[in-house]
Amino acid sequence: MSRWVRLAARNLRRNARRTLLTGSIVVVGFVAVTMTAGFVSQTFTSLRTATIRGTGGHLRLLDPKAAGKTDDEASVILLDDWEGLSALLARDANVAQAMPKLSFFGLVVKGDKSGAYLGIGTVPALERGASLASDTVVSGAFFSNPDADDVMLGSGLARAIGAKTGDLVTVMTTTPDGGLNAVDAGVVAVLSYPIKEIDDRLLFLPYRSAARLLKVEGRANTVVVLLKDGVEVDAAARGIAATLAAAGRPVVVKTWLETAAFYKQVKLLYVSIFFFMGLILATVVILATANTMTMSVFERTREIGTLLAIGMERGQIRTLFLLEGLLLGVVGSAVGAVASFVLRLFLTASGIMLPPPPGGTKGNLLHVDFILLAYGLGFAIMSLTRLIAAWWPARRAARLNPVEALGHV
User: Fold this and answer.
1) Cα(123)–Cα(209) distance, rounded to whole angstroms?
2) Which burial class, exposed, middle or buried, applies to 117 when counting CB atoms under 10 A from its CB (0-12, 13-18, 19+)?
3) Coil, strand or helix: which one is 405?
4) 26: closest CA among 337, 320, 295?
5) Low-confidence residues of the chain, pLDDT below 70?
6) In 3-state terms, what secondary structure has residue 76?
7) Residue 209 exposed, middle or buried by CB count within 10 Å (0-12, 13-18, 19+)
8) For the chain, which residues make up each domain, given as ranges?
9) Which of 185, 215, 240, 389 is the most exposed place for a label (fewest CB within 10 A)?
């Protein structure tokens, strides 16, 4: 086999211009596959971070009665003694913090204007470090006093009721037992949330103020758990569920991915686009290189006739052309791997800022991830497409009539 490989390599060297042209197609194709995979990977990472920060943590702990319920059904089931639950979670080496969340809705009023809101009751100090909301303040300052009747409004909601930082508004809601309650709160911040539908309704209250408003002190809709860096989410979820069940506090544990419908849809879209681009790229490589190989067979007709005339078998002729195609795919992929790696380093060091990911407000520096699997796929795809492209010309060369080939001009 090594003799045939050397012969194929010599044929490629003899036709240096054609080899360079065809090899450049392989190199560009390889770079396109690996760079696109690295960029898509970075996009997924940014979107994942934005999604986790959008909820304030990796895990959501719900009351056991919420098992099997939809998100809307589970949202009205309150978890008792969240402080005791947080104390148990604090013993877990994988947990960075745990904070309660209260979800409620109602009307917020300023003067003669009012607007419907979607409220979130949370612990200010914990929310600041974990949530996306801390990056969206456009006026005032993120609330910090856990006992104050302070409120933060989405900019759309603030415009609708004519409120600004420093104003006093009345927050009204219905308590779980059906009563009506209200609290006067000062606007300490206006947020510009990236999703308009949320921005038009968003309202934050400190947990204690929200609990007094709803008359549910010590209870929460969910406890959001932020894990430490590098912790595997699914394994941590299983461990926390088992630990709490053993401590007599069984809960339903949901990972961020289970409740991230938007993330799943975007990821599926990107994967579909990447797959479609890969099909187009493979088709272009096959057609371009097949044309080059066909021209090679045409130009080497007399050479092929001579080889057949001196006793080379047709199968060996076919093998020779297939090896030329495979060798060009392997060498082109190797050059493409080097070019892709150098280009990746250049782009990563360029300092180019990308637009904010979906659900984010700040762009990220361009960083093309190194995906070893993409490099392996690049080698496989380019080599396979070269074999496919070489098959028809190789078949044609092997079926030439030696007498007619020798007389070819």
Assistant:
1) 10
2) buried
3) helix
4) 337
5) 1, 8, 11, 293, 296-301, 303-304, 307, 356-364, 392, 397-398, 400-409
6) coil
7) buried
8) 2-51+263-406, 64-250
9) 215
